[in-house]
């Protein structure tokens, strides 16, 4: 009986945590400064103390609810690197598309970008929790310079693809097969991560030469 009660409390706790995260995303979408832990707790139907127990503070809640989004391409990259570096561009594009095609919701990732667009703290946390650590690993494993720029190029490329395919449903991108998109985009993502830059843009007499 005691074991069943502990299991029930754990399940209830997880359900409460999910409600808090869902409520927090709605509040943070409207702005970080305006969001309060008290109002988020009220919308989730839990005590304020429970929010602090789960997440520590407002910044911890923001990180868990807005930045800890598995659909973000940089969340996928470290897991794929654990399986080796071969064909990482193709594998990242495929994993990204297959996850979305399986029906994962676009809403949490959209919240990330909306929050980062208007909140300096959101941009800083996004870099500190995702781009920075991933860039360090890319630099170490591939021996490349400009690793932060490289992972940000991957991010904006795949996010643009996601908006076109899943949000705007632009044709023919929306109906193109995963295999074909991997064939088109995988080599570009590979170049972002591992390739050499052909040259630098140098200002001359009004003309830029590569």
UniProtKB/TrEMBL annotation:
It holds the Pfam family TetR_C_16. Keywords: DNA-binding. InterPro entries: Homeodomain-like_sf (IPR009057), HTH-type_TetR-like_transc_reg (IPR050109), HTH_TetR (IPR001647), Tet_transcr_reg_TetR-rel_C_sf (IPR036271), TetR_C_16 (IPR041678). Residues 36-55 bind DNA. Residues 13-73 form the HTH tetR-type domain. This is TetR family transcriptional regulator. It comes from Mycobacterium deserti. The lineage of its organism: Bacteria, Bacillati, Actinomycetota, Actinomycetes, Mycobacteriales.
